[in-house]
From TrEMBL:
<feature type="transmembrane region" description="Helical">
    <location>
        <begin position="316"/>
        <end position="336"/>
    </location>
</feature>
<dbReference type="Pfam" id="PF07690">
    <property type="entry name" value="MFS_1"/>
</dbReference>
<dbReference type="GO" id="GO:0016020">
    <property type="term" value="C:membrane"/>
</dbReference>
<feature type="transmembrane region" description="Helical">
    <location>
        <begin position="277"/>
        <end position="295"/>
    </location>
</feature>
<dbReference type="InterPro" id="IPR011701">
    <property type="entry name" value="MFS"/>
</dbReference>
<keyword id="KW-0472">Membrane</keyword>
<feature type="transmembrane region" description="Helical">
    <location>
        <begin position="150"/>
        <end position="172"/>
    </location>
</feature>
<dbReference type="InterPro" id="IPR044772">
    <property type="entry name" value="NO3_transporter"/>
</dbReference>
<feature type="transmembrane region" description="Helical">
    <location>
        <begin position="21"/>
        <end position="45"/>
    </location>
</feature>
<feature type="transmembrane region" description="Helical">
    <location>
        <begin position="404"/>
        <end position="421"/>
    </location>
</feature>
<dbReference type="GO" id="GO:0015112">
    <property type="term" value="F:nitrate transmembrane transporter activity"/>
</dbReference>
<feature type="transmembrane region" description="Helical">
    <location>
        <begin position="110"/>
        <end position="129"/>
    </location>
</feature>
<dbReference type="InterPro" id="IPR036259">
    <property type="entry name" value="MFS_trans_sf"/>
</dbReference>
<comment type="similarity">
    <text>Belongs to the major facilitator superfamily. Nitrate/nitrite porter (TC 2.A.1.8) family.</text>
</comment>
<dbReference type="GO" id="GO:0042128">
    <property type="term" value="P:nitrate assimilation"/>
</dbReference>
<keyword id="KW-0534">Nitrate assimilation</keyword>
<protein>
    <submittedName>
        <fullName>MFS transporter</fullName>
    </submittedName>
</protein>
Length: 439
């Protein structure tokens, strides 16, 4: 019977594990491209609808708020129905508001569709779940981080590509109003195409698909919680009872939450504060997202290397250090006096942020293997809670620089939660045994 992969062979898709690896980051890329497609066009949309600062803040909050609920749901659904069916459904359902936002005629309708688009952000949890069940302990951190990082880069690509796509539409003869609308239809269509590809070419785990395996009486990755009829709810309850899950919920909110927040405000911040053009601001903001191409993978790889002896707490220490670096860099970005320093400091703290995200999900597979979906879902939702909290903070303060300063202090303080999530000596011993058995 097929087993988990203990190496990552990037240039092949012949095995179920590598097909899942490549297709899950591609699906994630498409979802994140769609999720952040509106952000770089907000200066244009703001003018068309006459949006106030408070209304823009509401839109940014809406973009990440619904993702909290959907992430909590899709993790346990992966335990019950498998990542293949869950991802296919999310892509199809998520494409509806992505296409719908192109037809918004008012602030209220735009806000409604922007809220719905947030469901695409839950794709992250499915990606992390799928790679977690496909790869063994020696490389699972790297696999999780690389798949998440490459997929996450979709947000950065959207920042740079969407203004160019709108410009291309205008060059074809359409008005600016129709240009941004036509551009926003593209990611919705890509989601529909990706749903068909994912359903056709992936499977849930190395042994096959969950529903078929259960019908044959074969035990699968999630243990009794994915085999039971109430598996999704049981997985969630078991994960929610684990204190370590909530500590990582906070730390993920302080790294991925900040990442989402920067995606949503970077372009308009560069336009308003440094007077860059829409295309220049898009490129500057896009460079932050493109760090995910290697930043997350670097965090996961470093975590795997440090824990090669089986020491899970070395993964914890790495996360602590990365979050301190993120907080310090965020403070530098907040007080950058010119655009060059702002971009340089953004890239600096951005690297720590992406690495911290990768290091967090290098820990997730070891928190509770019997409730993997619940653990991944709750911690993933923490990222969006952090983004929503940052959005409300900005709305309350009314000043981007002040908001960034406060967030820098909060991020550095939340690093203490990473230390509090240290594993017990018995869990450490189990990890050492697992590391020796993984060949």
């Amino acid at each position: 019977m097929a087993s988990k992969a203990h190496s990552i062979q990037l240039f092949t898709m012949s095995s179920p594990s590598m097909r899942a690896f490549h297709l899950t980051w591609m699906a994630f890329f498409v979802c994140f491209f769609a999720w952040f497609a509106c952000a770089p066009l907000m200066p244009v949309i703001k003018g068309e609808f006459g949006l106030s600062v408070a209304q823009i803040a509401n839109i940014n909050i809406a973009a990440v708020a619904i993702t909290i609920l959907v992430r909590l749901i899709v993790g346990p659904l992966c335990d019950r129905f498998g990542p293949r069916l869950t991802y296919t459904g999310l892509l199809l359902v998520g494409s509806i508001p992505v296409i719908g936002v192109a037809f918004a005629q008012s602030y209220e309708s735009f806000l409604f569709f922007r809220l719905g688009i947030g469901a695409a952000g839950a794709s992250f949890v499915i990606t992390q779940y799928h790679t977690s069940v496909m790869f063994g302990p020696k490389v699972v951190g790297t696999a999780n981080a690389a798949a998440a990082g490459w997929g996450n880069a979709g947000g950065g690509v959207a920042q740079a590509v969407m203004p160019l796509l709108m410009a291309a539409m205008i060059m074809l003869g359409v008005s600016e109003t129709l240009g941004w609308r036509a551009a926003l239809i593209v990611p919705g269509v890509l989601m529909i195409i990706m749903a068909g590809v994912y359903y056709r070419y992936t499977q849930d785990c190395p042994q096959g698909n969950y529903l078929e395996l259960r019908a044959a009486g074969i035990a699968i990755e999630g243990g009794k919680y994915s085999d039971a009829k109430g598996g999704a709810w049981d997985s969630f309850k078991r994960a929610a009872a684990n204190h370590r899950v909530w500590l990582l919920f906070i730390t993920y909110g302080a790294c991925f939450g900040i990442e989402i927040f920067i995606h949503n405000i970077a372009a308009i911040y560069y336009v308003d504060h440094f007077k860059l053009s829409l295309a220049q601001a898009g490129m500057a903001a896009g460079s932050f997202g493109l760090l995910a191409l290697f930043g997350r993978a670097l965090g996961g790889w470093a975590s795997d290397k440090l824990a090669a002896s089986g020491s899970l707490n070395k993964r914890i220490t790495l996360l602590f250090v990365l979050m301190l670096g993120e907080g310090a860099g965020l403070l530098m970005f907040a007080h950058a006096g010119d655009v060059t320093l702002a971009i340089a400091s953004m890239l600096g703290f951005g690297l720590f942020t992406h690495m911290a995200c990768g290091a967090t999900y290098a820990i997730v597979p070891f928190v509770d293997k019997r409730a993997l979906g619940g653990v991944a879902g709750i911690i993933g939702a923490g990222g969006n809670v952090g983004a929503v909290a940052a959005g409300f903070l900005m709305k309350g303060l009314g000043n981007t620089q002040q908001t960034l300063t406060v967030l820098g202090v909060v991020v550095a303080a939340s690093a203490l939660c990473a230390l509090a999530a240290r594993f017990s000596s018995s869990t450490e011993e189990e990890a050492i045994v697992a590391a020796k058995l993984a060949v």
